[in-house]
Specification:
By secondary structure, this protein is α+β, with helices and mostly antiparallel strands. The protein has five helices and eight strands, in the order H-H-H-E-H-H-E-E-E-E-E-E-E. The protein starts with a helix and ends with a strand.
Length: 205
């Protein structure tokens, strides 16, 4: 090695030693709603600066704090956990329609939270008995309740929520976690992960 090369190598080693060991970058903090005090995500920056999006985020936060769940969730339920929804919602930053993607994400989540909440006496949603084929839960017999917000709550015979799909189609780069379409007596459900199955309604006993 030439004298110049040796000198440069020595400078690099000395500089590295002076800097010390490189610490790993910590993961982003866990969140379930936008952090407007010290935003980490680009979607937080946009949501906190846009009055309409900020109103949706605050509405969702209030629903999370005040809503009582009507039923417990089954272990294999097709209900997206709030923290998982938030991480997926933050990916809207990669969309060319960032604001529209966030709006669709919030509107879907609000519809799901509304479907899971205990309804007031004067707005009890209609319900139907149904049999689900190829569903990811063990008992095929369920009760399906539809809400005014375009969502549904599917409850098994143990009173546990096994799914909370919405009628909303994929829009503005946002895909609902679970969605349904009604075709006569058939309710077809598809999920974000590609699962698909059908529930057929029947007369209540």
């Amino acid at each position: 090695m030439s004298g110049l090369s040796t000198a440069v190598a020595g400078m690099l080693l000395t500089g590295s030693a002076a800097l010390g060991p490189v610490s790993p970058v910590p993961p982003p903090p866990e969140q379930v709603a936008a952090n407007c005090e010290s935003p980490t995500y680009a979607s937080d920056v946009l949501a906190c600066s846009d009055p309409a999006l900020l109103a949706l985020d605050r509405q969702m936060s209030t629903a999370l704090k005040t809503a009582r769940l009507a039923n417990s969730l089954a272990p294999s339920s097709l209900v997206e956990p709030q923290d998982a929804w938030f991480r997926r919602r933050s990916l809207c930053a990669f969309s060319a329609r960032h604001a529209a993607c966030l709006r669709a994400a919030y509107e879907e989540r609000l519809a799901i939270l509304d479907a899971l909440a205990v309804p007031a006496r004067d707005r009890q949603p209609p319900s139907l008995g149904a049999i689900c084929s190829d569903a990811p839960w063990s008992k095929s017999q369920v009760t399906i309740r539809f809400t005014e917000q375009g969502a549904a709550t599917i409850v098994d015979t143990d009173g546990r929520v096994v799914a909370a799909p919405t009628r909303r189609p994929p829009i503005d780069d946002w895909s609902p976690y679970a969605r349904f379409v009604v075709d006569g007596t058939a309710i077809r459900i598809t999920t974000y992960a590609g699962l698909s199955f059908t529930c057929v309604t029947r007369d209540q006993d």
